[in-house]
Amino acid sequence: GINAEYGKQWYQRRVRGDMAVSADSSQLVTASADQSCIIWDTETGKILHKMAAKSPVRSCGYSLTNDILCFTTDKAMSQPCFIKFYDLRDKEQVVTNSPFRDIQVDDSKVNRMIWGTVEDYVITGHENGQICQYDWKSGERLRVDHSHESLIKDLQLSKDRTMLISASKDTTAKLFDAKTFHFLKSYKTDRPVNSAAISPIKHHILLGGGQEAMEVTTSHAKSGKFEARFFHLIFEEEIGRVKGHFGPINTLAFHPNGKQYSSGAEDGYVRIHDFDQSYYDFEYDF
């Protein structure tokens, strides 16, 4: 990435996993297939700490207070999948690469991880479609959901952190109570769903995906189905589409004020979309 103000080039080999910004935006953490997790200073682009792993690092994130850093590693290179926790108040843990908690995951590797409604647990999405809660203090797995049939591609919480949306290769996104994992709604498409987001101001769900990236060059953009799709949160029906990308959408995010959303795709573009007045005027008929 490039820091536009300072012109700093940030470099990490084969970054493909995940990234997260601290609550005060002073730090960025990145997960990479080069078997490392790096903490950066967002103002200068300077590397603050680098934690090495024995297999690719898949996902990462800060706790709500920024006190705990979590990252997950792949089941690869004769290594099991791990969920690792570092207490950032103890600098020795990151300097010596000594997490205070290692949770070994034996059944199916973690593909996505986010922190839960409160700081007591993390939520993980797995290769086999299951979604789990892990207590980082005890290492215990608290809950497991088997609603999805294939790889979990994305997990996001609502603005108030009470609802969880999951995106899966099984062509669906599903809405849950983030604490109890009580199933609420399902949003069905005809393509793998790579990302899903919940509007902070409207009863809207935003989905993005498309045909597999390896098949993109063999088809036209229209047949690849790379639009962002809006669904009504309650009624589970599609209410709109936005075109623009000519590759699968990999990630989506609403602006905290709900007046914009951004999309990143395999075509190499990040698109920032402003909603016009008709979006706010739209009322769902029922």
Walk me through what this model shows.
This protein is mainly beta and 286 residues long. Helices cover 5% and strands 47% of the residues. The N terminus is likely disordered.
Sum up the structure in keywords.
mainly beta, single chain, 47% strand, 4-stranded antiparallel sheet, 286 residues, 5% helix, disordered N terminus, 25 strands
Mean pLDDT: 91
* Major beta-sheet overview: 4 strands, antiparallel
Note the overall shape.
globular
Q: What amount of the residues lies in strands?
A: over 45%
Please give the share of residues in helix. Answer: under 10%
> How would you spell out the order of helices and strands?
EEEEEEEEEHEEEEEEEEEEEHEEEEEH
**Helix/strand-derived class?**
mainly beta
Rounded radius of gyration (Å) = 19 Å
Low-pLDDT runs: 1-7
Strand order of the largest sheet: 3-4-5-6
DSSP strand count: 25
Number of helices: 3
State the distance separating the first and last CA atoms: 45 Å
Break the fold down into its secondary structure elements and pairings.
Elements: E1 2-3, E2 8-9, E3 18-21, E4 27-32, E5 36-41, E6 47-52, E7 57-62, E8 68-73, E9 81-87, H1 91-95, E10 101-105, E11 110-115, E12 121-126, E13 131-135, E14 141-145, E15 152-157, E16 163-168, E17 172-177, E18 183-188, E19 193-198, E20 204-209, H2 221-224, E21 228-232, E22 238-242, E23 249-254, E24 260-265, E25 270-274, H3 277-281
Antiparallel strand pairs: 1-2, 3-4, 4-5, 5-6, 7-8, 8-9, 9-10, 11-12, 12-13, 13-14, 15-16, 16-17, 17-18, 19-20, 20-21, 21-22, 23-24, 24-25
